[in-house]
Queue: 2 jobs
Job 1
Amino acid sequence: MSDCLFCKIINGDIPSSKVYEDEHVYAFMDIMPLTKGHTLLIPKTHCQDLFEMPQDVAANLYKAAPKVANAIKQAFNPVGLNTVNNNGAAAGQTVFHYHLHLIPRYDETDGLHLQWNTKKFEMNELANFAQAIQENL
Ligand code: 5GP
Ligand code: ZN
């Protein structure tokens, strides 16, 4: 897509620090990393988010994910790694070409703070939620 920042990066119109590239995906360093090694993995096919991603694009993206994650692990020896994908502005998405953040973790002060405020639902409510989703598969 001509006015998409990440399509321009794939095409080389905007410079990036490339990590990996194949026929289907491109991986590069996030310009404002949360931690050392914070990498973005993107499909070469433009799709805005997970909701509009075709299954074959998703398959090819996740085929490359372990390869890139393990290279980050070998390079920097993190103690863990979070994968994050924000879909929609309300979820924190700022660039509207799907991207999977690969964020190596070092310690609790390393820049990523995930606060999980869990809620309690009864088993029958969870079953109803599952059914609502199933009906839309
Ligand atoms: P989002 O907030 O959409 O999940 O993540 C977008 C990410 O893209 C951010 O982490 C941001 O730092 C990164 N980003 C934005 N513009 C550029 C750019 O021009 N080059 C690179 N390498 N990363 C970018
Ligand atoms: Zn794009």
Job 2
Amino acid sequence: MSNNIDLLIKNGKIATASDFYQADIAIKNGVISQIGVIDSQAKKIIDAEKNIITPGGVDGHCHLDQPTDDNSVFADDFESGSKSAAFGGTTTIIPFALQPKGGSIKVAIDEYHRKADGKSYVDYAFHMILTDPSDEILKNELPDLIRNGYSHFKIYMTYESLKLNDMEILKVLSFARDNGAMTMIHAENDDCITMLTKLLLESGKIKPKYHAVSRPIIMEDEATYSAISMSELIDVPILIVHVSSERAMIQIQKAQSKGLNVYAETCPQYLFLTANDLDSEDFEGSKYICSPPPRTVRDQEKIWLGLKTGVFQVFSSDHAPFRFEGNRGKQIGGSETKFCSVPNGVPGIETRMPLLMSKGVFEERIDIQKFVSITSTNPSKIYGLYPRKGTIAPGSDADIVIWNTKNKFNLSNSMLHHNVDYTPYEGLELNAWPQTVISRGELIVESGNLVTETPQGIFLKSDLPEPAKTINKKSLLDRLEKNTFEK
Ligand code: URP
Ligand code: ZN
Ligand code: ZN
């Protein structure tokens, strides 16, 4: 028997961002060594029985074991969060190392490595969250980090403890342009949200549903346009995260059609939830509090269209897990917690891919190639992990999902592996779930069971993202002067 192949997957229907075809996959030393009709022997053979095979998912936006400033606790650490990701077909996660205001981002990254080391069942890279882009950080910390595996960061236009003002945003965007980094932007206008929150509280409106009233579409629209305008001025690519509304999407579409490098992400909560989910007499509505909030059925339909037509490059979970019960999650101030004090976020690291496969691919809203590109290939490219991650091709890591799409079932939180006591999608009828999940050639999930004894995930250094390479080296003032006067 030839031992040249460690694992041979026979008779699968392989989906990539561009193709869908039947072939066998040979794996050697954790890497895909051959694709085609393969009759060789192997140490292990899996018959995929004509099931769909996709690359393992790359979740380009999830929060695990992140520090908070309100005594709340993220319910998932790297152990439970990565296990949940694996069961849902995601084999690479990119959570966030958070710079405390006034603190070092390098120290935050070291700390985050300690939280992740030896605990992750899937491979991981880190985004950074920049809360304090001081000259010291931009000159003495970030350039080295960007070149050594941390090439992307998120900035916030909202949340008191995280937000940057326009001057700081311009500084960060200029830095990103000079260094080839990718800036992710949370776009909501904070002053307007603060004003509306004050008005609501003064009127005694404290229920969870007022979260959606306090963060209206108008202010997501305005902040998205503002972020795009600043990126146009500085001439640097940006990625607008968790887009929830048609209006914000139209701003992005307009920018893209002008030729600007504006990328966009959306998430399951904007396809499957609406603001009405927050509107309950009891405190149940707090389970759906996230920012931006879920919107309307019309917004859902437009976001689906944006996925189909390519406005969105990335479909992430924005897994931000807080438990409903207990006093460190949604009920941090008891069952009457005011909407503005409820920890923001919904869980979804495990359900991201099955929801989109069932409701997107099988209900014919998107094709399977689009599914692969937005759940895996594009985030891998944008965050500097491609072609190691995000595709099924010779030389790529053997991160592979074999799907079971034969049986209908109703989703229930009891099926899931996160450490959260609810799923926002309880009862939803699905028909697709990962049956076998392989990470770097090793089986991690088989027929609904974890089959790896210890977490084997490794840290992935991110290359500089391709789209951020600056071609036009002309200075800002030269460019502005040229554009101001007619020749
Ligand atoms: O509500 C959300 N999205 N919480 C997570 C933090 C963020 O802004 O992504
Ligand atoms: Zn955000
Ligand atoms: Zn987030």
